Amino acid sequence: MREIKYIKQPTKYLCGQACVAMIANVPVDDVIQVMHNDKGTGKKDIAKALEHYGITQAKTMTKADNSTPLPSVCILKVLLPKYSHWILYYYGKYYDPEFGLMDELYGRARIQSYLELFIDE
């Protein structure tokens, strides 16, 4: 299991880019250039960027909730009180670009789905 360097999202719209940057071990600005997007992202943006960095992923998002067992590595799509948000989950830790590195999911976050990632160690 490799170490992941936590990256805080530089603006409130860059959670998806920050998640890709953490798992790809590149700066957020690089991911912004790859995505051609410095605003909110969807699954297609994230999938294309992961592919660019050679990160293998599941073909589709898997529906989930806060009680669903998670795979070892995935990007979570969560719903917060006023917006959707992306969080990297890596071997039992939540690398939340907005709220920090946590052992438990931020209390008000509701998992909607996840994109499983397959990382070669």
Oligomer: single chain
Estimated helix fraction:
10-25%
Instruction: Indicate the overall shape.
Output: globular
Number of strands: 7
Largest sheet: 7 strands, antiparallel
Distance between the termini: 6 Å
* SSE sequence, one letter per element: HHHEEEEEEE
- Output the structural class: alpha+beta
List the total number of helices. 3
Residue stretches low in confidence (pLDDT < 50, at least 5 long) are none
Radius of gyration from the CA trace? 13 Å
* Beta fraction: 25-35%
Mean pLDDT: 95
Model description:
- By secondary structure, this protein is of the alpha+beta class.
- It has 3 helices and 7 strands, in the order H-H-H-E-E-E-E-E-E-E.
- It has helices at 15-24, 28-35, 43-52, and strands at 56-57, 62-63, 73-80, 83-90, 93-96, 100-102, 110-118.
- Strands 1, 2, 3, 4, 5, 6 and 7 form a 7-stranded antiparallel β-sheet that branches.
- A hairpin with a 2-residue loop joins strand 3 and strand 4.
- The model has no long low-confidence stretch (mean pLDDT 95).
